[in-house]
Amino acid sequence: MSRLTPGLCWTLILAGASSVAMAADGPRLTMKPRDGDPSRIVVEAAGLDAEALRRIVMNQMTPERWRAFLVVRVVRDGEGTQIAPALLGTYHLSGDVLRFDPRFPIEPGLRYRATFDPSGQSRSRMTAELSIDRSSSGPAARVSAVYPTPDVLPENLLRFYLHFTAPMSRGAAYRHIRLLDASGHPIADPFLELEEELWSPDGRRFTLLIDPGRIKRGLKPREEVGPVLQSGRSYVLAIDPGWPDAEGRPLASGLRKAFRAGPPDETSPDPKTWKIQPPEAGRRDALEVRFPDPLDQALLGRLIAVRDASDRPVAGSIEIGSGETTWRFRPEKPWQAGSYRLVVGTELEDVAGNSVARPFEVDEVGPITRRIVGDTVAIGFRIESGPSRARSED
Description:
Blueprint: E1 2-5, E2 8-15, E3 18-23, E4 28-34, E5 37-46, H1 50-58, H2 63-67, E6 70-75, E7 89-94, E8 97-102, E9 111-116, E10 126-131, E11 143-147, E12 152-154, E13 159-164, E14 177-181, E15 205-209, H3 220-225, E16 234-239, E17 255-262, E18 275-277, E19 287-290, H4 297-300, E20 304-308, E21 316-321, E22 326-331, E23 338-345, E24 376-383
């Protein structure tokens, strides 16, 4: 494919899943897979002119300013000149090379167009296009887990996490999820349906929010329609097998998660009530922390860490189990005897959205009896050279 623009000539070269546009006088635009994964791409634009580089260095760059130099959009057949939204992602500048990393994997069957303007002033533009076909490289996706896992959940439950074995399509989630009552009838409008769906970067985890307006007391949706869940009643979260994965194939099977609603949980998690069981020094056994109530599965994976007596992070792996009421940490190297701290981010929440810092119903439920100041709280414990029990180190 070749294009001509006054003052600039380039050739577009397609080679497998990569695309290159090259100008005669030096600028180059490349789209290619990242780390060998055809669903992840990186876009690099080389040859920014001196004035463009000066503008980038001198200005605080916003996404809109970056897009004046390099932007990636989906090209849909039949849309003519209609402009699709720009892909979200991050920009990096190294020398005269501008790199764009899309936030999400690309969708098979869609065509992507990168537009590079070396000057950033629409004087000379070049484009490159790339797509991957829908040919299946493995089995259709299936639902691998739904969190929270307990069979009894508080009536003020805030969210579900749906995990899949392969990347899923975007834009169709709410059409394929229903909340049913004990008789199998759908609950009307139970979810907060966001235009930009809440997916993890790899497209394998979807965050499903229950409408907060029907959770918080005093808000009009709850007063007019009522709460989504009511204590003592049974429900089913039903996932439709027709939900397409990123390759356009329906799920291998649907899923139904049955649960019962219990009393509301309106109390913030308190790390002082957690039970810490430290292992023996000289071994790589897991440190175990137990919570009185289930905590948010996704936040547990990133808001608790272990630091040693010198405040250095201890490297290791995390496992969450027992209905999200246990957190286990296995170090990469054997434990050394001494003092440690469990550092907890105060954004950590339970399944009802109450954080360590404050309860979810902060504005509606009386005075706040406990407010955490700071981004983290810490619990001290010791590792001994033999079987031991955790003890607080105030």
